[in-house]
Amino acid sequence: MISGEVSLTSDVLIRPVTLDDADALARAYRRNRAHLEPWDPDRPAAFFTAQGQSDRLRVQLEEGRAGRSAHWVLVGGGEILGHAALSNIVLGPVRSGNLGYWIDAGHVGRGLASAAANVVCEAAESQLALHRVEAGTLLHNTASQRVLTKCGFEEYGVAPGFLYIQGAWRDHRLFQLILNDRPA
């Protein structure tokens, strides 16, 4: 995967997540709690603590070593300003993964989500040789839909009751980006 820092803008970079990011991630999630709440699953109180993030990072890093996911943070001004991930990576004849991302409320509208998505998709193709990247958004998340469309994703359907968010199973718009047509 991305094996170092990649500049997204003159003041923001993306890099692989490390265990040392636990404190900064906890601060970022606390700072963005209200901003992310409409889009995220319900989070226990421990999620917003350094220990909760440390536990979560250990799982993410183990998943990464097993080739099932990859996680990055966006960093600027000494703070974490977002997160991007490829999850549910499947190799073999499928060769796909799911893209997810969020951007700090104070940095929305700067093109960071699009830039991060492009970097992650490039890594998915060049370093994992994936064929396809998928992403899903809540039906009313038009900002994220614009990001995906800008990055070349095409909508291919709606998944009823796709994720449990804010106390109910919510429908999601599904998008895909075909990276290449190489044999699996």
UniProtKB/TrEMBL annotation:
Pinpoint the N-acetyltransferase domain residues: 12-176
Sorted keywords for this record are: Acyltransferase, Transferase
Q: Which SUPFAM superfamilies match?
A: Acyl-CoA N-acyltransferases (Nat)
Question: What InterPro entries does UniProt report for this protein, alphabetically?
Answer: Acyl_CoA_acyltransferase, GNAT_dom, N-acetyltransferase
What are the recorded GO MF terms, alphabetically? protein-N-terminal-alanine acetyltransferase activity
Q: Which domain of life is it from?
A: Bacteria
Q: Which GO terms describe its cellular component?
A: cytoplasm
Which Pfam families does the entry mention?
Acetyltransf_3 (PF13302)
Question: In which family does this protein belong, per the annotation?
Answer: Belongs to the acetyltransferase family. RimJ subfamily.
Q: Which PANTHER family match?
A: [RIBOSOMAL PROTEIN US5]-ALANINE N-ACETYLTRANSFERASE, GNAT FAMILY, PUTATIVE (AFU_ORTHOLOGUE AFUA_3G00765)-RELATED-RELATED
Protein's name in the database: N-acetyltransferase
